[in-house]
Amino acid sequence: MIDQSSIKVIFLFFLSWFISFQLVAQPKFPQEMDYDSLLSLAKQQQKPMFLIIHQRNEQFSPFNTSISQKTKDILSEQFTSGMVRLKSDSIDHPLHKTYRLTTPIYLFTDQKGYPLLRHNKQINEEETLVKLIDSANTIAEGETMGKLIQQYQKGIRNRLLLRNLLQQYQAFDKYTDQHVLNDYVSQLTVQELNNFETVVFLLSCAPVYNSKTYQLAYTNRKMVDSLYATLPLPKRQEINNRIIQRTFRDALDKKDYTLSQNLGYFVGRTWQSHYLRAQMGQSYYPMEHRRLFRDTSAYIQMARNYYNTFYYRIAPDSLAKLDFANNQQIAIPRRGQPLHLDSAENSLFLQWMEGNRKRYKERQAQSLNYGANQLLNFIDFKKDDNPDVLFDAIRWLQKSIELRPNRGQSHHILAKALYRVGFYAEAEAEQQRAVELYKPQKHYYKQMRDVLKQMQDRSW
């Protein structure tokens, strides 16, 4: 006979199993969907949309809290909801072509996809989501971007409408439609183009670099120079970043490599007082253009020069010292000449560096990892003609590990590079280290173990 205690144990086991199964079986909320399908469903259901856009892995959880069934039902009743996972290199995806994305973002739109409300921080409390739902419904009753676009498409071009529409592009970090901006500028007088506030607004709208609108904003160059000299640094950075990102988006849309080169020159000039940042900025966008369009030979050559010059050969403290001098408006000598700080300045730098060294080391390690991984992705391993490229990647990764020894990703990428050059024992050792470091993350831990097994079997 089975005694009562055994029955109780068996019952508890099956109860635990059933609960676990139910939790695992529950679909993600909201479900992952293709953006075009989500947009089509919204039009079919005649509902506005709530979408979560991210570039994380498939294990990404959009809420750091539980969401009650009541709130889920409200969303289901009022919105067509879905989660859209983007690849960072999918440059032709409509969301990449529409928004400057720092993901994850939580976006409420009308049923045509025009934004109502954008939230850029991960949601940690259910109350936050409830408030966003209420705010989106309130905004939908007023003057929305979709309603302004509808009037614009009907041919309405009054200045108030155009200005309100341009402000909406800024509010949602949406790439400004240059036709709308051009229509607005065409109504301005020469006197208005000499007005400080007008020019700040135009530049904040992100005209494409060297376009007609950009040049008109620079009608009074002395005034623009004065503008940049008096605006707070965060505002200047915001203006320049919007122009840079909008111009690069234009270069991608038009497959215009020359525009990406011109953008590099523009970025370099924004760092006139800091030669190293200027060179980094000037080199980056032409290289990134080659990468995104898979121009293999050109990209590999440019990437080797870029990461060797700016991340492998330069110590984090050296870059930080130049940044500190630039921030303190201390004159930086030309490249090749040492930067000298007096005793008071050096003391301030050492104090500042104590709080910033970790960030600089992390940034350099991430950049070296990324550069090495891109080389591995671009090399044709069927051809035995890339040993120098592979050894560049290996050197970068070794330096990255010196900077941040306990990053599983660094050891994993190094293992891949070592395996490709036939250093199998070394590759297995690095991959084993990656397995150990990824142990707290079950999903990646399994992936790392699978790769290690394949390396051991020489089947990877």
TrEMBL record:
The record's listing under SUPFAM superfamilies reads: TPR-like (SSF48452)
Top-rank taxon: Bacteria
Q: Which InterPro entries match?
A: TPR-like_helical_dom_sf (IPR011990)
Protein name in UniProt: Tetratricopeptide repeat protein
